[in-house]
Write a structure and sequence with these properties.
This protein is an alpha/beta fold and about 220 residues long. The chain contains 7 helices and 7 strands, in the order ααβαβαββαβααββ. The chain has a 7-stranded mixed β-sheet with strand order 3-2-1-4-5-7-6. The model is unreliable at about 1-5 (pLDDT under 50).
């Protein structure tokens, strides 16, 4: 497969990307990795797709938790369109034989239709230029009855200080090119439903919206 050149926003050293990501998670998302792990970690089917896996650091933490909890080992494919991020993820996840990684555009997945049991999109749907296409691709590659889990960044909420900090961080992200736009709750739900998903839950936590949906049988 021809490699897609890493986008400029993701050409920084992966360590800086990880540190910056943790700061954004706390200040912009008003969220934490443990809450995200509780949502994503237990919900991987026998064949699982991780879209926009990034540097692999957060997913590495998820995999360690799966081992600690003695959850069933599943077949996992992680994709990202940045060669720098996939290179970092390959180093971090080399100890997991059930994980493979490929450079791929989230809006044009080079994958067979109806071939995955679950799809996750973690901390990234709001960074993808055409999120509606990404969601449609997630729907396409899911088997009938397959499930999507995704979290989306919402416009800042909370008290004045919380909103001011989040807005400042979001402006930095947009200037850097790592954030397109936050969503309104109803806007993101509409995108999921227009892609074909039947929603099972949509829950706000801080400035994040957590959604689970399924492809109808």
């Amino acid at each position: 497969m021809e490699e897609i050149k890493g986008r400029e926003p993701y050409s920084d050293h992966p360590l800086w990307y990880d540190v910056r990501g943790l700061m954004i998670l706390r200040s912009s998302y008003r969220d934490n990795v443990f809450r995200q792990a509780y949502f994503f970690v237990p919900h991987m089917g026998a064949r699982h797709l991780e879209i926009a896996i990034g540097s692999g650091s957060l997913f590495y933490f998820f995999m360690l938790l799966r081992r600690a909890l003695r959850l069933e080992e599943v077949e996992i494919l992680g994709v990202d369109n940045s060669s720098e991020m996939i290179g970092s993820a390959r180093k971090k996840l080399s100890g997991f034989a059930n994980v493979s990684l490929e450079i791929m555009d989230a809006t044009q997945l080079d994958l067979d239709a109806k071939s995955f049991d679950t799809v996750h999109i973690v901390n990234s749907i709001h960074s993808i230029p055409h999120p509606e296409l990404c969601l449609k691709e997630a729907f396409r590659v899911l088997k009938p009855g397959g499930r999507l889990a995704v979290n989306a960044l919402l416009f800042p909420q909370g008290n004045f200080l919380q909103r001011a900090v989040a807005e400042r961080v979001n402006r930095f992200g947009q200037k850097k090119g790592i954030l397109r736009n936050p969503f309104m709750r109803h806007q993101f739900i509409d995108l999921c439903e227009c892609a074909g998903f039947e929603l099972e839950m949509a829950e706000e936590r801080g400035n994040s919206l957590y959604v689970r949906g399924r492809r109808p049988k």
